[in-house]
Structures are given as C-alpha cells and as structure tokens.
Amino acid sequence: MLDRIKLAIERINNLTTFPIRIVSHFDTDGIASAAIFSRALQRWNKTFTLSIVKSLDEDFIKNLPEDNLLIFLDLASGSLKYLKDKKNPVIILDHHEITQEIPENVLMVNPSLENQESLCSAAICYFFAKSLSEQNKDLSTLALIGMIGDNHQDNIGKRYDEIIKDADAVIKKGLLIYPSTRPLDKALEYSSSPYIPNVTGSYKGVIELLREANIPKNNGAYKALYELTNEEMTNLTTSIILKNPGKIESEKLIGNLYLLKFHNRLEDARELSALINACSRMGYPFVSLGFCLGNKSLKSKAEKIYIEYRQHLVSALKYIAEAEKITGKNYTIINAKNNIRDTIIGTVASIISRSPLYSEGTIIVALAYNEDKIKVSARITGKDGRNVREVLDKVVVPLGGEVGGHPNAAGCLISKDKEVQFIQELQKVLDIELVKV
Ligand SMILES: [Mn+2]
C-alpha cells in the first residue's frame, strides 16, 4: 500500500497543470478522510476543490470536468466502469470492494488489492499524509475516528496500532455507552446504541438505574463512565442486564473505549464519530468537515446540530415505545405520521431493530410523513430472517413505487393517498410470508 501511496504523491506532484478535484463520501469515514486529505494538501501548498456526496452515480461522474485530476476518497471502487470513459487522471483512496477492472487512467490505493489488514479510508488517507510529512501525525486522531465510524475497532492489526500510538489514544475496557467522557446520567439518557429499554429517553429510569448500581453523585454531579472504578463498572453492567432479563448479553455491552485528545479536550472517539455522522445526515456535511478541522464557529454549530439530533432521536424512541403499533406474529408496523421526522425514521428503525425489544427475525416497518410523501423504512432484527427488500417490493411495486436497500434494511417513498392501502397490503404480504415459513 505504501508503494502505491508514493505513486499517488508523485502523480499529484507531476500533474501541476491539472486543477485538483476531491470527491469524498458523506459518512464519518468519508468526512474524516476528506479532513485528513485536505489538510495534508493545504500544508503541501496545493489548491483543490472538494465535494462531499451521498453516493456516486453515472451522471455525477459524467459531469466532472475533463481537465481535472480527480481524487476519490472512501468511494469509487465500485464505479470504475464509469471512470474508464473519462479522460482524467484519477486517484482513488478507498477500501470498498473492487468489482470491475481497474482502468489505465486510475491509480488505486486500496488495501484489498494486497490482502492486507483491512483499513478504513481515513486510515489510508492518514498514511498518505504521513508519507508526505511527519508534521501530519496530528491527523491521526481523525484516522481513529474514521476507524470507529466504520466499525473496524474489533480487528486491529499493525497499521491501526500505529495510528493508535500516533494519536496517543487511551484504550480502556468498559461499557460501550458514549460519551464516556461526560456525566453518566446524560450519556445514559441519550444512549441509542445500545438502546436500553426504560432508560434511554427516561431520566427517571436513568436515576433508578444508577441507584440500583450504587453509583452516587459526586460533588453534585455524576462521574463520567471512564472515571468509574472497576467495581462500579461491573455493578452498572449487571444492573443494565437485570433490567432486561435474558435480552441483553454482557459481551455485547462491553468493549474498548477509545479516549483521545481532540482540539485540546479529552473526547470519546465514538461520540465524535456519532456527531460527525449526525451533522452529515442532517444535511450539513461541511459543518462536520469544519468540526474535524477545528474551525471554531463550525465546531459550535456542529455541537448544536448534534444536540438537536440526539433530542429528536430520543423523543422518537420514546414516542415509539408508547405508540400504538400494528403487530403480527413476526412483525411490527409503526406509523409515526408527523411524530417522527422522515430524515431520522431509518435510523430509528435501525436502533430498535438492534434493541432488546424485539426477538430475532422480527420485521420492523416504520412510516413517517415528509412534506407530500410517506417515507417507509423496513429492518429485520438479528442476522437471520426474511428479505425485507423483497417484502417491500411485493407491496410497493403494484402501488407504483421503487424500493431501495438491502435484504436486511430497505426503504421506499409512497404517496400519502396510498397510506391505508399500503399498510393493508403490507400486512397481507407479511402474514402470507409467515405461512410459507
Ligand atoms: Mn469507509
């Protein structure tokens, strides 16, 4: 990989007449990649333009100017067939699967080419930056945030070790509730991953839990999770499990906490990753980017957006806990109408599908209104179960709509006048599927 990074640096250095155009992905790993890469170029005195996109499609690639040096971060490994038709020189720093032949105009830096330790894109960008200059070692914290964003923390090899060391991160075993660096009562109240029934979204439940776990206030405030003694950590874990008998496994609750200094403050990498992801999803990817780069006004804007996002999320979860649902043997339909924003209904459906509220194999379908349509999100709990994309297809195609997604997470838009019909047909399909099983 480092050889290819060297080639990429040479190529950028040699193509001085080509304006540089960077395109990155809008999730945490993509934003962290963009932040690392653009800071590195800036320190290298290179000018560039940057776009952040949700996904790459043929049209987008077609419209990129032909005289640019195109650099893709955290995407494009699956779009090679469109890049083949471009005259541009192209550099890709990505870790997604390469599904087509690599065209001659493309220089690909992707750890999957060499069967090496799998790395997130932010880590690849970090090694690019570090190859340019040791000064860029301060960007290692961003690489670590990308690693958490893409959930690579359980597969740490030599290269991630190097990043952890460069970032001076502290790893502590503990409950995976974040932020572990802020008072425990707030962290528990807003905990959506894991979602703890009767605690998430309920301050009364939080106080009860902390009393049961025998964790008192200290000078008028609760400690942060990372400050707990081993005994307190064990007590808290036990109390959470006892609150949900037989439903939460302790192995899933315990893991490594990554603590790092980020813009001079001790932070939990999970929290930073969630904040970056939230701002992007709320439609502000450049606020996320500014946050990563330490821009003061964008940092406070990002924090505001994140607080609002978390409040929306917990009130949505609270609403769902109390709302009337349509329930069959292996499914639950929640029609949230105007009570949950369409922009977060998918996330909410994902959270409850991972929560202990539903047994493995349950299909969860959640509906929320946007201005003139209804957003539908379907999820399956656990790993085994029916293909929810197919289920939605069967209902939506006859009604005139298009379903996107995967077998375990799919979604679609339907018009409001089809609301009743959609739910009726959906129930029929779900009941029939059940008979077949
Ligand atoms: Mn990624």
In short:
The chain has 17 helices and 14 strands. It has 437 residues and is of the alpha/beta class. The chain is globular.
SSE blueprint:
Elements (H helix, E strand, L loop, with lengths): L1 H13 L5 E6 L2 H16 L4 E6 L4 H5 L6 E5 L6 H4 L6 E4 L12 E4 L11 H12 L7 H10 L8 H9 L3 E6 L8 H6 L13 H10 L17 H14 L6 H4 E9 L2 E4 H13 L3 H8 L3 H27 L3 E2 L3 E5 L9 H10 L8 E7 L3 E8 L7 H12 L3 E4 L2 E7 L3 H18 L1
Bound molecules: manganese (II) ion.
Supply the key terms.
six-stranded mixed sheet; single chain; five-stranded parallel sheet; inorganic pyrophosphatase (n-terminal core); 437 residues; binds manganese (II) ion; alpha/beta; 14 strands; Diaminopimelate Epimerase, Chain A, domain 1; globular
Q: CATH top level of the largest domain?
A: Alpha Beta
* CATH architecture term of the largest domain: Alpha-Beta Complex
CATH topology of the largest domain: inorganic pyrophosphatase (n-terminal core)
| Gross morphology | globular
Helical amount: 40-55%
- Radius of gyration from CA coordinates: 23 Å
What about the largest sheet?
6 strands, mixed
What is the number of beta strands? 14
Strand order of the largest sheet: 9-10-11-12-14-13
Number of domains: 3
